[in-house]
Amino acid sequence: MKAFLLDRYAKNANLRLGDMPEPMPGDDEVLVQIHAAGVNLLDSKIKSGEFKLILPYHMPLVLGHDLAGMVVRVGSRARRFKVGDEVYARAPDFHIGSFAESIAVKESALAHKPKSLSMEEAAAIPLVGLTAWQALVEKAKLKKGQKVFIQAGSGGVGTFAIQLAKHLGATVATTTSTANVDWVKRLGADVIVDYKKDNFETILRDYDVVLNSQDGKTLEKSLRILKPGGQLISISGPPDPGFAKDIGAPGFVKLILRLLSSGTRRKANALGVDYAFLFMKASGSQLHQITSLIDAGAIRPVVDKIFPFESTNEAIAYVEKGRAKGKVVVKLK
């Protein structure tokens, strides 16, 4: 099969289009013929080596986390899917590889594709959808009437998280550029801060939850807009001791991650708020719940641009520019 391969960590290196054997599904896996694959900033960060300490992959590596496609083979213990089923998933860590013609995926990570979506739209959902779900539903336990600040409302996670938070009954604030103000309002944002004109920390007050996806300076400002007892959940770091424990990191990695987040945790404690780092996990059961919301019309995917499979490197470069409105997808079939 054709696949885009990473031969070594390098920030500016392109992936190599090469031939790989078609994967054989394990007993608890399903072989999926990929029709479309979502492109995420995580792919770029892995390519550059930013996560090699906590995700030490062997080379050559087939990159790609999000996929939508059709089941072509099932393992002997796989029971929930059959050949011909249309499915989508965020492939689990250490089992990624959606920039390819096929992939073997753990059955537990798969869900049936939303009937209302095309393959390209479905491929745009898993990573950002699961990130928003695990941040707002699982970790923050966001409730009706609470206030949540979702940074970068026009980005992949932001576009999904705004819609999910509104479905949960929260008041949603976000940041975006002048050109996207009306657009994020249509997604459901109640309070919109144009970052080209205003500083959010002078406008927002007494928020229950912040979903942080930006740099350390923005994180520090965001801590100050929370009410006492509020929560800041960051998907952009710094990793905390809880994350180190979750991934079973060795002792020296636990120490490094503890030190990386010590300043942020001290500032949060001084303000009487909670800080947590989130590195989302693959989950077919949560995707199934997201599918129900999509097919009910509560959430819609936002796809900025679709590239042909042969242009996967160009798709990654486009994502790296940070200007996409929603998600970027590569189309195989």
TrEMBL record:
InterPro entries xrefs: ADH-like_N, ER, GroES-like_sf, NAD(P)-bd_dom_sf, YIM1/Zinc_Alcohol_DH_Fams
Pfam families: ADH_N (PF08240), ADH_zinc_N_2 (PF13602)
Gene3D superfamilies reported for this sequence: Medium-chain alcohol dehydrogenases, catalytic domain, NAD(P)-binding Rossmann-like Domain
EC number: 1.-.-.-
Sequence ranges assigned to domain Enoyl reductase (ER) in this UniProt record: 10-330
Protein origin, superkingdom: Bacteria
GO molecular function, one term: oxidoreductase activity
Keyword entries, A-Z: Oxidoreductase
Record-given protein name: NADP-dependent oxidoreductase
